Amino acid sequence: MISYRISIGLFCELMAVISIDVSCWFRFSAIHAFEKPNDENALKLMNSCAASMLEHFPDIVFAYGVSDEYSFIWKDTTQFYQRRESKILSVSVSYFTSTYVMKWKDFFPHKDLLETPYFDGRIICYPRKKLVRDYLSWRQVDCHINNQYNTCFWMLVKSGKTEKEAQELLKGTLAKDKNELLFQQFGINYDKLPDMFKKGSCVYRESAKERIELTEVGNPVRKRRQRVVVGHFDIIGHKFWDEHPYVLKED
């Protein structure tokens, strides 16, 4: 995967991808006793924070998240902070972190925030939108591989195996071997697990819909509004992009 770490202020045609993730995730998830391999509330909290990012920053056109990380795609024409990399990155990370803290009780009403979460981030720039598609496809492939392995690993651990024993049992196994293990030993059909676990989460705006509102004096005004949506789709193939061409147009 080729990345371009060039200042986005120098090349206006570049699309910026900001990747944000939790620092010391294993410690943070352990302290808060997150369910393994996937804590649904923790994932929904991340999704809610990502949705807030799109609502707050209109120049973010798409976001993809899995586990403790999220990638935000900024449109290539953005002039936010005059395209200064350090400002865009610092504001994005600080806003996401603050939102995470503020929304914690919405998703964990009976669990205190025991340690301050902090996120780090980086900007990667791509000269063509096709490469952004490639990047997102790579992240979704990684999501599937990690989730399949982690599902097997934690089911083995919960069944009484040590973590070392679980690692040894899974060493060298193929995808079909892991699916067979889950079904034969635990009665789990991997294909029927929630798409949020297998495919990650996509955040985007629906196509703008026109509606009519009345002004204070009763005159009709036409307005267009886009609603931020969180979904779990295959973004490796063409179907999602063909159905949502306004999100990330091909070159």
TrEMBL record:
GO terms for cellular component: nucleoplasm
Transmembrane segments: none
Location(s), subcellular: Nucleus
Main subcellular location: nucleus
Top-rank taxon, per record: Eukaryota
Catalytic activity field: a 5'-end ribonucleotide-tRNA(His) + GTP + ATP + H2O = a 5'-end phospho-guanosine-ribonucleotide-tRNA(His) + AMP + 2 diphosphate + H(+)
GO biological process: one example: tRNA modification
Domain tRNAHis guanylyltransferase catalytic: residue ranges: 11-127
Binding residues annotated for Mg(2+) 2, in chain numbering: D21, D68
EC number(s) recorded for this UniProt protein: 2.7.7.79
Protein family according to the UniProt entry: Belongs to the tRNA(His) guanylyltransferase family.
The protein's role, per its UniProt record: Adds a GMP to the 5'-end of tRNA(His) after transcription and RNase P cleavage.
Protein name: tRNA(His) guanylyltransferase
